[in-house]
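Because showing beats explaining, we let one protein speak, sequence and backbone structure tokens together, and leave readers to judge.
___
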Amino acid sequence: MHPPPTNKYLFLGDYVDRGPFSIEVITLLFAYQVLHPDKVFLLRGNHESRPVNMQYGFFLECRKRYSERLYDAFQLAFYCMPLCAVISKKIICMHGGISEDLIDLNQLEKVDRPCDIPDIGVIADLTWADPDDKVLGYGGSPRGAGRSFGPEAVRKFLHLHNLDLIVRAHQVVMDGFEFFAGQQLVTIFSAPAYCGQFDNAGAVLTVAPNLVCSFTIFRPDKSYEGNTKEQKISKPHKVSEHNEKK
């Protein structure tokens, strides 16, 4: 993988909290976005929200190292971030999951930003929702925000919006990626050895111009703390046989 502007990058949210270098991470990403606005795209995750990042470390990091004024400036930036992206009209990406209330993607153009993330509704689902194979349609969420959704909900959502694949993040998956609903949805988790408490791999999804998807896996190297080993997955996933190139 090459840094921008050689490649385009789409990040799926949760840039702060649960680590000592949130300020460096989000500042670097914002700088890349300013330098290469047509190559680097940042979506909003549930941690780009004051009630969450006030609790899980970002507020204390900003206050201890700089000031509460810096923290407030970051919140305003988070309140203006986009919630989802569509690649070549066939792959939809978000941090959380799909929403029963999202009937037309043009609804997203009418979101009144800057805004925080509510507990229910489209914005909440796009940043908080999770897949659940025990649910057919939509159901409640144990997180207390957003909803859970099942394979049938995925199928109907893709059909309604004429899409082929949902790409989301939000949950630790041990191999760095995990398919759901007959490979109509994939969860991507890019932080290996999450919080030092899991033995999970991290993954990056690569989408080729013909929409063939492949994965690069970063596995924790147990012989050296903090190091990772890179591995390419050799079996690509084809989104659709009829897709045109970008």
